[in-house]
Known about the structure:
The chain is mainly β. The chain has strands at 2-4, 9-10, 15-21, 29-34, 40-42, 48-54, 57-68, 71-80, 86-93, 102-105, 108-112, 119-123, 129-132, 138-144, 147-152, 162-168, 171-178, 182-187, 192-197, 203-207.
Amino acid sequence: HTYHGSFPYYKQKNQVYVLAAPTTYSQYYLYAVDLATGNMKQLTEEIVCDYVYADGMIYFLANERRDDIFHCLQDLYALDLATGKKQLLTVIDSDTTINAQFAAAKNGLYYRDKEDGSFLFWNRYTGKRETVNSGSQVWNIYNQNGYIVAHFVETPENPYRLMVFAPSGQTMKQVYATADCSDKAVINADGFLVYRLEGTNQLVQVQL
């Protein structure tokens, strides 16, 4: 096998998870590696392009195909490592100019709808999804020390340009929202948020 990517560790099963190719020139699949025995088990039949790990869940992109000359599509799946249950969540347009289209959190996944750019949250415990900041278009989503940061396009229908979410029980809660236009935000392990106002050198600091 050839290997690719980082190796998230799942303590309950004493396993790490890797992308591996059965032969040197073949496509990558997701495998579990048992650290006690060294045995490898293939977890996906789908050809996997990339994946992220969050609290016993793996979210992976698979089945890359060309929709037309401008759009390359990938399926976004959720895989529960405790049960082995796999669920197709949505389809991602990987050729879009949007910086990041999904981010994994402790209690689920935030992602961008490829049709209208709306911001959605899928709850891993309930299996339900909900629209966040209705009427908005999200252009960047990422995880900072367990917090989810989302930036939105500046439109009259959208009251917020920057939102931050944190785990709360078996869901996520909004802990900050502002109309400030920001191109980057950083949150440390103590929940201290710093973001730059777009087009300036001015920094805003907030204790979440």
